[in-house]
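so ive been stuck on this for like two days lol. basically i have the seq below and the ligand is copper (II) ion, smiles is in there too. i just want the complex predicted, nothing fancy, no docking runs or whatever. if the output looks off dont worry ill sanity check it later, just need somthing to start from for the group meeting slides
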Amino acid sequence: MHLHARADCAADTGFKSSMGHHGEGEGDHGLLNPRGPGKGDLGNIYVAENGVGELQFFKAGAFLDSGDLPLLDSDGTAIVIHAEEDDQISQPIGGAGARIVCGVVTTG
Ligand SMILES: [Cu+2]
């Protein structure tokens, strides 16, 4: 799961309208990358056989409306779930594959 640069989840674009990762270029991709992580990097969600999965993640430096790159900046931020496991080190997205779920970060 990643934070993407724009709060736009148009399904007819395959969620590519959410653009690249939030803060792309500010640190390499991957939580395991010594030159990372990027500001958009989050963890993997592991889903059980019954279809239930859960992710709890604390992203240091991510703020809704403060800091050097707020999530609610002029074009907002999307949360995107990819189809495959992110290896958390290879570029540009850890082999995470297609975008399958997209949601917009909002306060209300
Ligand atoms: Cu992504």
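The mean pLDDT is 95. The pocket of copper (II) ion is lined by residues 2, 4, 21, 80, 82, 93, 96 (CB under 6 Å).
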